[in-house]
Amino acid sequence: MEVGGIVTEPGNASQYKTGDWRSQKPTYDFSKCIKCG
């Protein structure tokens, strides 16, 4: 990626993989569920 986010050529966004940026995800503990909703 260029410094400052400069677009050097059109259509280059497909070159960057962004799906693995998430480092944490929520966990669901079924034993604590009180069926509120």
Briefly characterize the structure.
The chain has 37 residues and is mostly loops. The chain has no helix or strand.
Overview of the molecule:
- The protein has no helices and no strands.
- With 37 residues, the chain is mostly loops.
- The termini are far apart.
- The model has no long low-confidence stretch (mean pLDDT 77).
Main beta-sheet strand count, sense and barrel state: none
Mean pLDDT: 77
Instruction: Outline the low-pLDDT stretches.
Output: none
Shape: rod-shaped
Structural class: little secondary structure
Strand content: under 5%
What is the gyration radius calculated from CA atoms?
19 Å
- The tally of strands reads 0
- As a percent range, the share of helical residues equals under 10%
Distance between the termini: 44 Å
Features:
37 residues; little secondary structure; 0% helix; 0% strand; rod-shaped
Topology diagram in text:
Layout: no helix or strand
